[in-house]
Amino acid sequence: MGSSSPLSEAETPDAPHFLSHREEDVTSESWRQHRKHVFVLSEAGKPIYSRYGSEEALSSTMGVMMALVSFVQSSDNVIRSVYSDQHLVVFLQKGPLVLVCVSSSGQSEQQLRGELLYVYYQIISMLTQASIARIFEHKKNYDLRRLLAGSEKILDGLLNLVDTDPSFLLAAVHCLPLASSLRDSLSQILQKAITPNLVFSILIAKNQLLTIVQEKTVIEDARLEPADVHLLLNLIGASSAFQAGEIWTPICLPLFNPDCYFYAYISYLDPPECTVCLLLLSTDKEAFYAVAECKRRIEEAMVAHKSLSLIAKAQSYSVSQVGVSDLRHFMYKPFDVPDNHRQLTQFTSPEMEAPYSSEEERMRLLDLYRFMHSRIHSSSRPLKLIYHVAERETLLAWVTSKFELYTCFSPLVTKACAINAITKLLRWIKKEEDRLFIRYPPKYSTTPNPSKSARGGKGSDQQDSTDNGFLSLL
Predict the structure, then answer these.
(1) Hey, how many other C-beta atoms are within 10 angstroms of the C-beta on 66?
(2) Which of these, 223, 170, 232, lies nearest to 199 by C-alpha position?
(3) Across the chain, how many H-helices and E-strands are there?
């Protein structure tokens, strides 16, 4: 079993900008100029987290935020947002926690609230909702930073991903394009390496999903949501501790069950490159050796099939492979998938290439997509089709009962040409769908160990926060 804790690694981050963000002067103009601030505090006004600057330096600012929340609550109302010329302030209260976003990004209130939810879910993934409720019920002015010490890097990493990865905007998982025969072979390897109380077997490469195998009885009751997968990917990517060997740690999947832990076995299969990661989730706290044996069998089978060398060759694709002139980029999320109500929502997208090669240009394109997304999903006036001529490109967004699609074209493309191009794009996606998506999610059946509580496959019912390896090893 690995001796290092992912959060103990997070306490001494390698990146120098991490410390500079923490030590940033909150009275400086540069601090004010950040396009998006995120704050987390307790109902008692105690600081818990700030994306930029230290919580101590911001305690009076967070006190004002809590005063606003309390003032509106005293009138039997809830503060949701404050609009100004330059900024949008969004509030989200979840139990004893208050989350606040101050943004000049131009995103909609709905989008920013969704991002605050992700921050809340990431905190829940480490502590569970039940534990947090119990802690504050016992002591309302408790300083939650005592339990979250070292987790700042995980929350920072999440917010960086939210800003740069469209998976969060689309609420979908990005699969690594892979020959269907190879994906099926990997799925079969995972299906054969099982043990009682194993619930999910997930294979990840280059921060994208390769395949996921689920226990049959579990997905009859509930499905794994994209947000839970995003939190797992962020957790793995936030710390190099996972590259050191085998990690066995409690983890909560907030959308699956916010009050209970799974026990996650995490191991890279291709050291020292560490691009292919195996994640096995069990409901049995004592199952480390049984689950480690599953990993050994998976590793043996992958060596026999030369799977790792084939995965290493797998890459994302270029938009030029679609063969549609003037198409620069797109994001496609299908709805008409087999067994849709139990499927993990997925999307596909090519690499961002010129003219979106720089970080600044990629962010500009994502901001355009966010604008189109907010118009399509407007709570007051949702739209099905938008043709938008921007300064340097033309965009078209289209939502039907079968898909959600965002496309970016060169600037002089007309609406008629764009729709004609989309017809060709949809044909290409249909032809490639077995390579781009997990079409038929594989399943296995494990016999729960009667001596262990699986609570209907929904996670371990151990809710004591001291049980969480993230916390007890800090």
Answers:
(1) 18
(2) 223
(3) 17, 17
Query: DSSP state, 351?
Result: P
Core vs surface per residue 193-203: b (16+ CB within 10 A) or e: bbbbbbbbbbb
- Which segments within 43-162 are labelled E, that is strand? 47-50, 81-83, 88-94, 97-103
Cα 30 from chain centroid (whole Å): 28
Cβ atoms of 248 and 262 within 8 Å: the answer is no
Closest CA to 367 of 98, 198, 169, 70: 169
pTM for the complete prediction?
0.90
Express each pLDDT in 322-370 by its tens digit: 999 999 999 999 998 776 556 889 999 999 999 999 999 999 999 999 9
Residue with tokens 């240009």: 361
- Alpha helix locations (H) across 176-222? 180-192, 216-221
The number of residues making up the chain comes to 474
Alpha helices by DSSP H, 357-464 = 359-376, 415-436
Nearest CA to 150 out of 255, 18, 16, 247 is that of: 18
The per-residue pLDDT for range 35-74, each reduced to its tens digit, is 999 999 999 999 999 999 988 888 888 989 999 999 998 8
d(CA 442, CA 301): 17
Question: CA-to-CA distance for 352 and 361, rounded, in angstroms?
Answer: 10
Closest CA to 455 of 238, 221, 265: 221
